[in-house]
TrEMBL record:
PANTHER family: DEHYDROGENASE/REDUCTASE SDR FAMILY MEMBER 7B, SHORT-CHAIN DEHYDROGENASE-RELATED. It comes from Cryobacterium arcticum. The lineage of its organism: Bacteria, Bacillati, Actinomycetota, Actinomycetes, Micrococcales. This is Oxidoreductase. The keyword Oxidoreductase applies. The keyword Oxidoreductase applies. InterPro entries: NAD(P)-bd_dom_sf (IPR036291), SDR_fam (IPR002347). GO terms for molecular function: oxidoreductase activity. Keywords: Oxidoreductase.
Amino acid sequence: MTRTDAAAYYNPMGTTALITGASSGLGVGFAHELARRGADLVLTARRLDRLEALAVDLAEKYGTVSTVIPLDLAAPGAVAELVRDLADRGIRVSTLVNNAGFGLFGSMVDAPAAPVHDQVAVNVQALTDLTHALLPGLLGAALTHPQGAALVNVASTAAFQPVPRLAVYAASKAYVLSLTEALWYETRGTGLKVTALCPGPTETEFYAVAQRSTAGPRGLASVDEVMRTAFDALDTPRTPPHAVSGGQNRLLAWLASVSPRRTVVTVTGRLSRR
Ligand SMILES: NC(=O)c1ccc[n+]([C@@H]2O[C@H](COP(=O)([O-])OP(=O)(O)OC[C@H]3O[C@@H](n4cnc5c(N)ncnc54)[C@H](OP(=O)(O)O)[C@@H]3O)[C@@H](O)[C@H]2O)c1
């Protein structure tokens, strides 16, 4: 399949895409590529100044109309508020990118309660609630805009195995992967493209937020590389249930899936030492 195959190409031109976590890193990458492809955007995250600056940049570069909605997805009722806001503004979302997420490095016994709770609130609960609320609209959009409707949930290569010292984070991403693959199956034949994007270590603010100085021996991928994986997956006629970014990451994910769990967690435990 080539990108000239118009029947398979993901084309959100004239539709609206909502990106969570649009204030930095992969969220900004999604915003640029979706805008370049002609989508209007809903940009959400906590840092309003970042979102507003991005909206101006996208308007100048691509003529994009962006709606900026600052929101803390860990706050109770945040998703309901977002969905109400979209309805009040008459915005119909055709592509949902559940990208917001974070991890906190360290053993659980030493972790403060709030970030432990908030990792699940953002990475798992908000993603699930937003997907559930918007899924009927996404399926409707797949009918009116064939090739222009998608659900992308950002998981991680951490989804494929337990990771000591990133225990809650890795468990949350295993959930995202499992949920998304099940939804991929449930929505087969509807035209909605569904995939879980699984990046490996990537050059964003993730490690600063996680309070971890290094990504380990593998180095960091660029946001552009990860975006190529995401949009290649969307551009294929049979969008895969998950897409792992990078050959080495694909190999490691496969190895984790065929190796004994005790061995896998022992290896990841050794690798995740500071
Ligand atoms: N970078 C990596 O190595 C890597 C690898 C695999 C998977 N991922 C996943 O990729 C996704 C994007 O992360 P990134 O790497 O781009 O890191 P990042 O640069 O730190 O971006 C994270 C985004 O999530 C938003 N966010 C965090 N907590 C939030 C909250 N409570 N409410 C609303 N928004 C919130 C942040 O916005 P505000 O701070 O402005 O709210 C920010 O826009 C995450 O799901 C992450 O788990 C990253």
